[in-house]
């Protein structure tokens, strides 16, 4: 086993886990580390670098994921034997042409560190069953599934999703109303193109999901931030704002604060939509996981006048790279949405749709959901225990009733974006609550995801967060 020389800049803007990742990857590509060469353990390298083990773990996980490294059970971690020759022969970029180091954005899209929001338990996914289904469908993919497909998606998957939504979410729909898309962002872009003209006003929750705001604004919508309270979006404020052609809401698990919209507020919102001839975009992004009661039914199931467009995704219950989401569209809108879908990207890829349809129909999906509820219950408990033990005097848990993240509030004197940057230097990937506000003075806090980390990592991460909080500023 070799030692690694990895100079670290502790005063710069690049997080430690990224510097460690770049250093090891660069050494592999330059030939300083050879295929099959054993590298230090995460604990040993952390000691050598005088850093916490967490940024080293995050760097190693990314390198393993990208196949630069490979683990051997009971032996250690090695440079991958399967690196392409052209990678190993790549030449260093001349200094004059070298781009400036990329400082990852706050929502580091590849980040797998503790507290990453919206990340499910990838380590507990049924890889063997899924791989078997994908391989079988790839081997027998008929010519019709290799050609241009139905813009609405594979009929078998649409039927399986409709069956699941009727039974599990109380959604009133047929398979014909289900359209397959590449995720909730695509769903919102397509729906907005069908129901809005450029400059039309759309009400959005304040605070709310930044990705939804970006998707709606990209289509030319004018955003109207409407405050939320413990009952959900403030419909009285929505009425006073006037002129909204649609309202985007997360009624089952409000993003980011976590509360659920009350039954009375749901009926009031639906009445507003009916009277105004407006549409409600319901994003049901992680409703399967609720810890204080049974999962709540969808708002769409209460809609007697066909004003709700329902948006769902498999990113939280399967894995984000699957890129499969769906719309449930009221029948009068179907042709308009199909035209918008055709203009977006013609039709969704077929292979994963076929495998996913069998995954649902064969009972794998329901079994996976049942197992994961127990896994997330334990991880949520570990996070809350760690926060109480290590951070209880420095933050307040706002809501932890459902989903895969916990919203916490910070006291006066903290800057949550600065704190997130400091956390990133230690390999912790959180989200600043203030980034979820569009117009009003934001509350200062953190969104701490727990789905993607096991109990031990969460305990370690909360201890590190406590150290950062006590040392602030």
Automatic annotation (TrEMBL):
What are the alphabetically sorted keywords of the record?
Answer: Aminotransferase, DNA-binding, Pyridoxal phosphate, Transcription, Transcription regulation, Transferase
Q: Extract the ranges annotated as region (Disordered).
A: 89-110
Which stretches make up the HTH gntR-type domain?
A: 14-82
Enumerate the GO terms in the molecular function aspect: transaminase activity
Q: Which InterPro entries match?
A: Aminotransferase_I/II_large (IPR004839), HTH_trans_reg/aminotransferase (IPR051446), PyrdxlP-dep_Trfase (IPR015424), PyrdxlP-dep_Trfase_major (IPR015421), Tscrpt_reg_HTH_GntR (IPR000524), WH-like_DNA-bd_sf (IPR036388), WH_DNA-bd_sf (IPR036390)
Q: Which Pfam families match?
A: Aminotran_1_2, GntR
Q: Which PANTHER family match?
A: HTH-TYPE TRANSCRIPTIONAL REGULATORY PROTEIN GABR
The UniProt entry's sequence similarity note says: In the C-terminal section; belongs to the class-I pyridoxal-phosphate-dependent aminotransferase family.
Q: What is this protein called?
A: GntR family transcriptional regulator/MocR family aminotransferase
Per the UniProt record, the source organism is Inquilinus ginsengisoli
């Amino acid at each position: 086993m070799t030692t690694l020389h990895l100079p670290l800049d502790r005063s710069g803007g690049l997080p430690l886990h990224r510097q460690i990742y770049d250093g090891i990857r660069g050494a592999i590509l330059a030939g300083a580390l050879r295929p099959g060469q054993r590298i230090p353990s995460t604990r040993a390298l952390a000691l050598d670098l005088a850093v916490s083990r967490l940024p080293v773990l995050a760097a190693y996980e990314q390198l393993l994921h990208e196949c630069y490294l490979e683990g051997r059970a009971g032996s250690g971690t090695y440079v991958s034997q399967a690196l392409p020759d052209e990678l190993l022969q790549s030449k260093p970029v001349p200094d004059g042409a070298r781009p400036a180091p990329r400082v990852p954005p706050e929502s580091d899209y590849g980040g797998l560190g503790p507290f990453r929001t919206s990340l499910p338990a990838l380590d507990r996914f049924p890889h063997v069953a899924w791989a078997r289904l994908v391989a079988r469908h790839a081997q027998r993919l008929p010519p019709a599934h290799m050609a241009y497909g139905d813009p609405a998606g594979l009929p078998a998957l649409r039927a399986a999703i409709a069956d699941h939504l009727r039974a599990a979410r109380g959604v009133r729909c047929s398979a014909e109303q289900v359209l397959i898309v590449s995720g909730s962002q695509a769903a919102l872009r397509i729906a907005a193109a069908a129901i809005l003209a450029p400059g039309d006003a759309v009400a959005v929750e304040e605070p709310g999901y930044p990705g939804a705001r970006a998707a709606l604004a990209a289509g030319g919508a004018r955003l109207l931030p409407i405050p939320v309270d413990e009952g959900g979006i403030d419909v009285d404020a929505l009425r006073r704002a006037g002129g909204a052609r649609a309202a985007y809401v997360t009624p089952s698990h409000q993003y980011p604060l976590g509360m659920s919209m009350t039954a009375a507020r749901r009926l009031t919102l639906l009445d507003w939509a009916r009277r105004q001839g407006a549409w409600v975009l319901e994003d049901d992004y992680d409703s399967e996981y609720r810890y204080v009661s049974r999962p709540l039914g969808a708002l769409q199931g209460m809609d007697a006048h066909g004003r709700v467009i329902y948006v769902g995704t498999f990113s939280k219950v399967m894995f984000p790279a699957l890129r499969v989401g769906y719309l449930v569209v009221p029948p009068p809108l179907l042709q308009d949405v199909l035209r918008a879908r055709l203009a977006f990207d013609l039709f969704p890829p077929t292979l994963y749709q076929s495998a996913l349809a069998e995954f649902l129909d064969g009972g794998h999906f329901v079994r996976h959901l049942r197992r994961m509820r127990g896994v997330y219950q334990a991880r949520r408990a570990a996070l809350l225990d760690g926060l109480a033990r290590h951070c209880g005097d420095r933050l307040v848990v706002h809501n932890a009733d459902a989903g895969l993240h916990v919203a916490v509030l910070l006291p006066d004197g903290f800057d949550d974006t600065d704190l997130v940057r400091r956390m990133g230097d230690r390999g912790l990937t959180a989200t600043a609550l203030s980034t979820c506000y569009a117009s009003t003075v934001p509350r200062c806090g953190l969104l701490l995801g727990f789905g993607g980390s096991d109990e031990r990592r969460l305990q370690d991460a909360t201890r590190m967060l406590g150290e950062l909080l006590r040392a602030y500023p």
